[in-house]
Request: fold
Amino acid sequence: MLEFRNVVKKFGERTILNDLSFKTKKGEILFILGTSGTGKSVLLKLIVGLLNVTSGEIWLDSEKISNFTEEELFSVRKKCGMVFQHPALFDSLTVFENVSYGIRPHLSGLSKSEINQRVIESLEVVDLGEDLLNKKASKLSYGVQKRVSLARTLALKPEVLLFDEPTTGLDPVTTQSVNKLILNSSRKYQSTSLVVSHDMDSALTVADRILVLSKGEIVELATPSEIRESKVPLVKEFLSEVLDREEAESV
Amino acid sequence: MFSSVKQALESLGEAVLFFIKVTSLALRGKADLNNVFDQIWKVFLESLPTTMLAGFFVGAIMTVQFSLQIEAFGAMGYLGGLATSATFREVGPLLIAFLLSGKIGAFTAAELGTMKVTEQIDAIRCLGSDPLVEVIVPRFIGIIIASLFLLVFGLCLSVTGGLLMANVFANINAAEYFRHIPSIVSGYSIVSGLFKCLVFSFVIAGICTYLGYFTTGGARGVGLAVIQTAVLSMVSIVITDWMSSFIFDSILRSAGIL
Reply:
């Protein structure tokens, strides 16, 4: 499905990702964990061509997509929908205009009624109703903006969903509902999901596999149950808070 | 020292390429017309009151200054013509363009910079569109057209400001004020003023869209882009003012008009 082969990314002399190789399975939810500045978001941006690899290759469905031109990236971006850390909605546009932005007739070839239906369908997946359609994005709360942002990406019906820190800055209740949305949207559209996060709790709940990055290198790639048994110090650090809380809850 | 010169040259090269690309997209009619008209309308309405105020007072200032100088020669009848000529050819476009660079330029740089650091520009790319076509070109065309209208509008109002001040300050009536305008304010003065207005519009639009689009580094980066836009626009306006006067005069001289 999606494969990284010896990918290296440098900014000047600084190496961000170092010889990264991994492969995703179709329909799986892969969480990418790591400390700040370890190249998690860069990894996602390389997939959709917002950044170029320094060396190595990225493959999507048996096609090498690394270092594609902007025109060639059009097809990649149709397949890989990205949900940004910020909601990145267009403030002056309504919810309908935001969600339909990537499927406007000249981009998707869809008719107006098909676009309407797709927008409503996408909003339903993120638990939002039609009453929001004509509201300006700037008038929405941060949590709702995040949902609309996810709906905008889902409207593209992507094969791969890329989430960049989807729960950062959210309260625990909204975090839980966003995790549910990731699970629902991935299962509903049977899309492969790559979720960049700091949140081990969410990863253990939602992920099929977890990839842990440290200083641009993979230190662990395993299922949540295997991760719980990991001997890697960084993984143990990530786990400690979760295990402490679980222990306290059991007491 | 060497590295900062190299960096400055690289930025200049990047800016020139950006300017060529945006101009080429604009000339090829790539932008959505509704979006362009929205931008023209928005920029025009937002800056109209300040431009009117600036235009009015530029005319008023010129009249006061000229009246102080020519009163000693008993040539107050020429006040309207001289003040209007100087305002149209030089001071009017320059001062109003300064004001617009602060108003439109800083606003647009802040708007685009915020879009950049909150990943809206990246989102547009990921949704299959070109941010240059969707965001930059409509603003670029909008700012050029709206600024041009605003500058011309400001110049017209400067005549009103001059007239009022001549009446209040030097007791000169409208007929007296306008009498020598046709003989002193030549077609050359008007075309020269309009040419400068056009050049300044390009300068403001080019600088604010470029610096806004390439903003990096969060809120601090946006602030920096706004400051750079204001400073660079004003410096560029002064330089292009001299250059456009020089080029325009050379063209007219070689054509035997001057």
Remarks:
- The mean pLDDT of chain B is 91.
- Chain B touches chain A through twelve residues (CB under 8 Å).
